[in-house]
């Protein structure tokens, strides 16, 4: 699979300057670009997974809080179903 990215003249110059400064001498420009792309994908995936875990934890806390409130209400009611306050 090939991915093409259309860059402006300024972006293209910035990319070339970046490559000249940080690309290892023993690595081709294509391999370097692939490495940068894959690291970006991995970082994005890691960020998404962290966000999912954070949302799940927040939902569990919310659900735990709601069930605690429900159990308190249940403790306050008697057999007739009347809530005693």
Summarize the structure in words.
- There is one protein chain.
- The protein has a domain at about 40-70.
- The chain has two helices and no strands.
- The termini are far apart.
- The chain has about 80 residues and is mainly alpha-helical.
- It is elongated.
- The model has no long low-confidence stretch (mean pLDDT about 85).
Largest sheet, if any?
A: none
What is the count of helical runs?
Answer: 2
Overall pLDDT metric = 85
Task: Quote the beta fraction.
Answer: under 5%
Radius of gyration: 28 Å
Q: How many beta strands in the DSSP annotation? A: 0
Give the topology string: H per helix, E per strand. Answer: HH
Low-confidence stretches: none
Query: Class by helix and strand content?
Result: mainly alpha
First and last CA, distance = 68 Å
Provide the helix percentage: over 70%
User: Looking at the structure, what is the overall shape?
Assistant: elongated
Notable characteristics:
single chain; 85 residues; mainly alpha; 0% strand; elongated
Task: Give a concise summary.
This protein is an all-alpha fold. 73% of the residues lie in helices and 0% in strands.
Describe the protein's topology.
Layout: H1 9-22, H2 29-76
